[in-house]
What does this fold into?
Amino acid sequence: MSNGTRIDPEEREPRAIKLRQPKHTGRKIVLAVLSVILIVALGGGVYAFVEYGPDFGFTSVITKKPASSETEEPSLPYEPEIPEEPESVPEEPQVPETSEPEPEIPVIEEPVPEEPQIPRDEWFMILVNKENPLSEDFSIETAVIDERGRVVDARIFDDLSAMISAGESEGLDFVIQTAFRTYAKQKEFFEAGTTTAAPGTSEHNSGLAVDISCASGYFEGSPEEAWLLEHAHEYGFILRYPEGKEDITGFEHEPWHFRYVGKEQAVLIKESGLCLEEYLAQ
Ligand SMILES: [Zn+2]
It folds into this structure.
């Protein structure tokens, strides 16, 4: 009982203290928490400033200062580099522009396929004249074209026969005077003075040429000549030594001498008005 009375004030005080203590502890906790937050915030701020500071404010300021200072200060190593870079930018589109006309060059080279229209290396386009003689061992496979045993290159037999037959079907009468002549025979004639063409220099040595006359023997001005001048190219033959080309062909005008060059080339040569030397020189 007595203890209860004495103890009561004592017990009241600690009770009051106990009631006040939570108040103090609460403030301390709040202060502690605030201080911790401030410390963490300051610490984090300092840390971020130290670590990431250069990436933000300082770098931008530092880079701006030298950029403005370089334009003001005549620092030679930087100023020429800055104007060169913008100039190189327009140069880059110029590079593809120059590369674009390059593929146009093969487009311009399209005339190249036109050149094969003149098959200079083909057997029927061989050039035989006093400057381009055939060799002594030149040989061909021949075909007989008449009852007298005259022969030509076997490869022109069909076209020659077709031309003669076509003219004869219109009432004309062709006579083959000269066809293939061997190198040896040409040499014999040349040494005898029968011809001015040395061995190998006559187209008759090639087997691609024929001298055509008519039954009357007067070929110039004959219907046979007129018909050949109009139709020979249709069968692959051209008038080899036309009038006015003597200085180029090296031969006088021979109205009877026809040379085989193939149907396609014969048409082109006739249309060109050129002799074979001129045509092949294109
Ligand atoms: Zn002839």
Q: What stands out?
A: Residues 71 and 79 are 7 Å apart (CA to CA). Residues 178, 204, 209, 211, 254, 257 surround zinc ion (CB under 6 Å). The chain has two domains: 2-95, 123-280. The first helix runs from residue 2 to 52.
